[in-house]
Design brief:
- There is one protein chain.
- The protein is mainly β.
- The protein has one helix spanning about 30-35; strands at about 1-5, 15-20, 30, 45, 55, 60-65, 70-75, 95-100, 100-105, 110-115, 130, 140-145, 155, 165, 170, 180, 185-190, 200-205, 215, 225, 240-245, 255-260, 265, 270-275, 285-290, 290-295, 295-300, 305, 305-310, 315-320, 330-335, 340, 345-350.
- The strands form nine sheets. Strands 9, 23, 25, 28, 31, 32 and 33 form a seven-stranded mixed β-sheet that branches.
- The two termini are about 20 Å apart.
């Protein structure tokens, strides 16, 4: 597990370094975090299929070697607003990063998308998403305008390969009492459509979701929306929880159902499942990484469409090939009959090589997982 950046206590001195946990080797100082302090907190981190590590911070990005942590490639500067190219994407100028879907046989470069953010000084929220393929040396950022400005957005990856953009504000920065004009609108982003035709305006909420709000995928494919702790007289701490229903949940089409015995997968392994309701003619499988989300980071987020073949009511899924395409961890397995996802089952892929699941043996403590 990589831990990067931060502060020594709340609003304390910067910690421009990274380390591995469980501890392996020394703490590595990072000059690029020192240089861009304080606009690089909660940097975006992702393992690329090349094995290199993508890191996005402030308005910069680079690839790091996974062994030495030396810079392999410095990527082009991340574009900002039309009227302020120096706008930032990480806390406190907080946007959100997502990985686009990976599909078997995993030969296409993986795309990283970052949406929203803000500027220093005027605190003008950013009105676009930008994307790049870091493993492609010739790649540059593609800009797509959002329907409105948004700082502190939450983005939820959905099992059909789309993404829901929610929450945040139209002006300000992340922090207590530092943003106003809540963005009440939800936006659906569909990467299968042509660039600049991928965003569709969805429903509005009446609940302001500002600093410390979240949006998480549920096992039935809906999105749970919660939180907001701006500590502001205008926008009190929010205790209400909402559920957002994506278009596939409102289609009226029946959900497929399935049974599965093997929930602990090795890389490249073939796993059989039984479809108990739904047609296998156009059946797909999607694997949605378990997400821990905070401050624009969706740690563990991954959308993977593995190879699948069906005969009768039996479908065979081939697990992703390695820990670069699919870092080890837990995933929700959804089966999709056309656009309609099933209820998910949690599966583990790649085991637990770092032994993060070695929970303490204590009385009255139920060990989670397998």
């Amino acid at each position: 597990m990589i831990v990067m950046g931060g502060q020594d206590g709340s609003n304390g001195n910067p910690v421009p370094s990274m380390e591995l946990l469980p501890q392996v080797g020394p703490v590595v100082n990072l000059d690029f975090l020192q240089r861009t302090d304080p606009n690089n907190l909660y940097p975006f981190l992702s393992v690329m299929p090349s094995g290199n590590i993508f890191v996005g911070y402030y308005n910069e990005a680079r690839l790091l070697d996974p062994v030495t942590f030396n810079t392999v490639q410095t990527l082009p500067l991340i574009p900002g607003n039309v009227n302020n190219p120096g706008a930032g994407r990480t806390y406190p100028l907080e946007g959100t990063a997502m990985l686009m879907p990976q599909k078997a046989p995993y030969t296409d470069p993986l795309t990283v998308m970052i949406c929203g953010g803000s500027t220093t000084g005027a605190s003008t929220a950013i009105d676009n998403c930008v994307s790049i393929q870091p493993d492609n040396p010739a790649s540059n950022w593609t800009i797509e305008r959002m329907p409105s400005q948004r700082v502190m957005p939450c983005i939820t990856a959905l099992p059909d390969g789309t993404y829901m953009i929610l929450n945040g504000a139209k002006q300000g920065v992340a922090g207590f009492g530092l943003a106003n004009t809540p963005n009440m609108n939800a936006v659906l982003y569909d990467p299968s459509k042509p660039v600049n035709q991928r965003m569709s305006i969805m429903a509005n909420t009446t609940v302001a979701r500002l600093y410390h709000s979240e949006a998480i995928l549920l096992e039935d494919g809906r999105i749970m929306v919660s939180g907001s702790d701006p500590q502001s007289n205008n926008y009190p701490e929010e205790y209400r929880i909402e559920v957002f229903e994506p278009p596939y949940a409102l289609s009226g089409l029946p959900k497929p159902t399935y049974t599965i015995d093997n929930k602990d997968w090795s890389y490249g392994q073939q796993i059989s499942i039984t479809i108990t309701a739904g047609s296998t003619a156009n059946m797909r499988a999607s694997l949605m990484g378990a997400v821990s989300s905070t401050h624009g980071n969706s740690m563990g987020q991954r959308t993977i469409f593995p190879d699948i073949s069906c005969a009768g009511s039996t479908c065979t899924i081939t697990a992703p090939p390695n820990n670069k395409v699919c870092p080890p961890g837990w995933f929700q397995l959804f089966m999709l009959d056309g656009p309609t996802p099933s209820r998910s089952t949690w599966v583990r892929i790649g085991g637990d090589p770092a032994q993060l699941g070695n929970w303490p043996a204590a009385s009255a403590f139920s060990k989670p997982g397998i």
